[in-house]
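dude i think i finally got it to work??
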Amino acid sequence: MKTYKIATIPGDGIGKEVVPAGRTLLEAVAATQGGLRFEFQDFDWGGDYYRKHGAMMPADGLDALRDKDAILFGSAGDANIPDHITLWGLRLKICQGFDQYANVRPTRILPGIDGPLKRCAPEDLDWVIVRENSEGEYSGVGGRVHQGHPIEAATDVSMMTRVGVERILRFAFRLAQSRPRKLLTVVTKSNAQRHAMVMWDEVAVQVAREFPDVTWDKELVDAATARMVNRPRTLDTIVATNLHADILSDLAAALAGSLGIAPTGNIDPERRYPSMFEPIHGSAFDIMGKGWANPVGTFWSVVMLLEHLGEDAAAKRVMAAIEAVTANPALHTRDLGGKAGTDDVTKAVCQHLSVNQAARAA
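look at this
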């Protein structure tokens, strides 16, 4: 019996609805697949914790997560707390504290979902976006002086190191190498950002020599947005800086039909620390408590979590269940134009796992 320790951090907003749904799904996976067990520990960190303690998570919170095999995260963001406090105090504290430097975001049009690109066939949009997740524009380097005075100044420095650029580009080339098309697009802005992004381009050329079987090209980030819309089939694996990939991956999710279906893995490729998996949709306070949240982004994140643990058979079963449910318009949530609720989708996916298990046993 394999037992995995999973930390669940619902966080804020609809994270409190979709993370419990993700736990329910993992319990269904264990119930329908012999030899697999999950031990959960829930952490109440987030906006409510901040109101009680003045911090989004305890100072020693990372120590409580260190022995876990993976983390399932919901969202960080509270309407009554400044965003930079919620983000840096919880999600980024975990990502940077555990050096989860590779943020991986698969994107494709799932069965039954009508994407906005009407001339785009589902097979034309099948991407993985690799986001540098530890430095760049979100390094946290900078400051403010003379606050409240006319001479007030503020800076945010995009800090890139050679080791940071090398490791994310090497990760992206290796990922592209593992995919059927062996195709990588390196996103840059070196025409305007003439120091760090020029180094990024130079390192890409050097790392590419290690992967002669990978076809790669370079694209300016503004041109990449147009290419994603107009020529989606020319893209496969995409790697970009922290800020650029943050924006491009939200565009990718919208082109695939909804931010509600998009997953993310914050990965420590060296496996020194637990990796963290989350939907990208955010807190969505406007629908919190209504039961409308789409759990598919969390369920797809569960697929990534299982793959990271090496449970590929379980991951494939969950992905097949997700696709069977999205193929049914009656089970679409409001972000997809339907009327189904979080519980409806959760029950349907779990039921599909049970039915398939019974069919295999017969």
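The first helix runs from residue 15 to 32.
im so relieved honestly
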